[in-house]
Write a structure and sequence with these properties.
This protein has about 150 residues and is of the alpha/beta class. It has three helices and seven strands, in the order αββββαβαββ. Strand 3 and strand 4 form a beta hairpin.
């Protein structure tokens, strides 16, 4: 009769390779979070938007309207009289940056006419490729603004 050879060592699970993989994944996700792009338009609370798409990482020019109706171009205050010249310079630049328009969510007054006037000035300057931005809200339709 033939004897079966058995070793005295019990089977064991090698954890070293799994720990290495876990740490590599951890490092990868930390590095990818650092590389995410955040557009600091202005430190204002933006209106939440449920529709639309993620902005592409690219050169950006930003016009922001705060709660009092003041305008900012790339985080610097600007008057409507100066805005036309700045928009004309932006439109005339070769391969000009993408223009984003942002508005603070809460307001002390009605800024609708101001926004419409701003969009008309942007279009009059010859810029047709611009976007209105807001804070993304997953899966919920935006609340309609209350009329006073």
């Amino acid at each position: 009769m033939r004897r079966i050879r058995r070793t005295e060592n019990a089977p064991r699970v090698e954890m070293t390779a799994m720990i290495d993989v876990v740490f590599l994944l951890l490092v990868f996700f930390i590095y990818s979070m650092v590389m995410m792009i955040r557009a600091d338009v202005l430190p204002v609370r933006l209106t939440t938007i449920a529709t639309g798409k993620q902005a592409k990482p690219e050169a950006v020019e930003a016009i922001t309207i705060d709660k009092n109706g003041a305008l900012f171009l790339n985080r610097k205050p600007i008057q409507f009289t100066e805005l036309d010249a700045a928009l004309a310079a932006l439109a005339g630049a070769p391969n000009h940056a993408k223009l984003y328009v942002a508005m603070e969510a809460q307001s002390n007054s009605d800024r609708g006419p101001l926004l419409i006037n701003l969009i008309e000035r942007i279009r009059a300057a010859g810029i047709d490729d611009f976007a209105i931005v807001g804070q993304h809200q997953e899966g919920k339709a935006p609340e309609p603004a209350s009329l006073r």
